Amino acid sequence: MKKSLSCLISATLALALAACAKPSQPPEAPPEEKTPPPEVAATPEPPPTPAEPAPPPTPTRDIIDTAEGSDSFKTFAKLAEEAGLTTALREDGPLTVLVPDDAAFEKLAAGELDRIRKDKKSLAALLNYHVLTGRAIKSVELGTMPTAATAAGPEITIEAVEGTITINGSVKVVKADIMTTNGVIHLVDSVISPPSGKKKPKKAK
Fold first, then answer.
1. Each residue of 73-87: b (16+ CB within 10 Å) or e?
2. Distance CA 37, CA 17 (A)
3. Where on the phi/psi map is residue 134: left (φ > 0), alpha (ψ -120 to 50), or beta?
4. Distance of CA 128 to the CA centre of its chain
């Protein structure tokens, strides 16, 4: 009887211990290391396309109107009228005109301009020596020409050094490519005197 009771107690304790015991759990696996996604190289943005320069406005005034409306070379227009060249400088073309600015006429010797004004033929010859007929020659081409014939007959010599165009060795173009309806004006800093007699001016060295 005692043996049966001991066996029963042992079985009861065994069941109780089994009930209280926690089921064993498998060890936790270490967290998986996540591989970062490969870096994608950024696509460089294309450089902005430079805007094309706006075309120059279409000229609306002829050579005489342009000279009369200027702030610095009105004298040439007045002299052209006195010499009877206004119509030609309005209607003929295309022309290239080397126009002395107002200060250039003031640099002439005292009384010289008044003397020339009294002789309309001499005045016309002087102004025509500043006119190249047949084409509107822009400065980029003018600077490559060693000589050019004038409306007066004799040639001028032309030289370009470091971007400065010089006529007959001393007269400089100070403002180029003033476009008109019948040609182009290049402003010069001195009056270009025609050679005396039939000799051509010597080319500057």
1. bebbbebbeebebbe
2. 52
3. left
4. 32
Q: Which two tokens stand for residue 201?
A: 């001016």
Contact between residue 115 and residue 160 where contact means Cβ atoms under 8 Å apart: no
Q: Is the pTM value of this prediction over 0.90?
A: no
Q: Which residues of the chain, if any, have pLDDT below 50?
A: 199-205
Q: Report whether 72 contacts 187 (CB < 8 A).
A: yes
CATH number at residue 108: 2.30.180.10
Evaluate whether residue 133 is within a structural domain. Answer: yes
Q: How many domains does the chain have?
A: 1
Strand partners, 178: 185
Residue the block writes with tokens 């001499």: 122
